[in-house]
């Protein structure tokens, strides 16, 4: 090992010819010199950065306590995304490969200073890596699987795939999915479009939800403004993408295309009308407004399918006319809603007793839809 280079014996695994994969070992104290954690965040323009969840201090402490204890066996390796500047030199002589793996030496360049970015990023094992950086056993050998990929999309794809046994936080998965364009498992693939629409609603300047949706990248002062949980809105959109939903016709099942722009416009028109119909309940914390609560978002999402289905019979998607008609339809239910005070007489419960449970979501949805349909019949 030289001053700016770590050299280790390694196996090159013959798995994917376009993405080199290596197995090797690092000392515990070397991990922090080689690899960094790409925390999930957004820049000022709203572009998603990184993919890792925040540090879990209790989890890190548990690992550290074990590492600093007696009789340590630590087979839990790390998965790193390596830079293209790494070099692998196969060993000379006979029997250096069996067709599955090749014996050799990997060379990983190190940064010139402590402030410079580390060459690799941790795809799996960030809590372990934090503990390894602090353990007194700095010479403890740690197993590493490293694949060469500087493309953030490939790293995010692998990050989502390797974290399936111990599930990732749902909001972290939801925010990362729209950034991954590789083929995903069916379960994740189904969530990709709703997640992309929620990202747009949280970022677009004409969206009533701009800055109000709580996502994995929501930090600092933005946390106090973010009052809507992304999973509630994602679930509402997923239902609207079903065959009975208003968004379903914008999926072309024959050729696999999706009119995402039209879907976004429908959501913006409807929820802008909701905001303007209930201004006193909009933008408050769920404790102060059940409209911003999961039960309100899900129930109003089901009402959207009824209202926007009617609106779009005579108005263009995203038009001022569509907004005006949505406002008129929402006026039919407005007198019966109690988002911030009073009781729901049809449910016989106070406004703040509504909870984000399947029973309350179903009951409130049925009440809103019944009131809407009865009011529409009376008005016609």
Automatic annotation (TrEMBL):
Q: Which residues form a coiled coil?
A: none
Domain of life, per UniProt, equals Bacteria
The cross-references to InterPro entries, in alphabetical order and at most eight, read: DGQHR-contain_dom, DNA_S_mod_DndB
What CDD domains would the database entry show? DGQHR_domain
A Pfam family it matches: DndB
Q: What is this protein called?
A: DGQHR domain-containing protein
Please give the organism: Streptomyces griseochromogenes
